[in-house]
Amino acid sequence: MGSELQTARAAAGLTQEELAAKAGVSREYVSLLENGRKSPTVHVLLRLCRAMGVAASDVIARVERAG
Predict the structure, then answer these.
(1) What pTM did the predictor assign?
(2) For 13, 40, 55, 56, which has the most beta carbons within 10 A of its beta carbon?
(3) SS3 letters for the chain?
């Protein structure tokens, strides 16, 4: 999940700090998610994806294909 979130964030042209601000989470939490040290709740995943302009279902599908 972390690498897919990082890929989506980069594609959206956002820094971790910008994504965190738009999604209402801390930059440190975004870093933990991207590095696979934490897993987002569904609610947080939806907020992150909205902030990046990507469907959560697309991110999850990419995780499934990679798994």
Answers:
(1) 0.94
(2) 40
(3) CHHHHHHHHHHCCCCHHHHHHHHCCCHHHHHHHHCCCCCCCHHHHHHHHHHHCCCHHHHHHHHHHHC
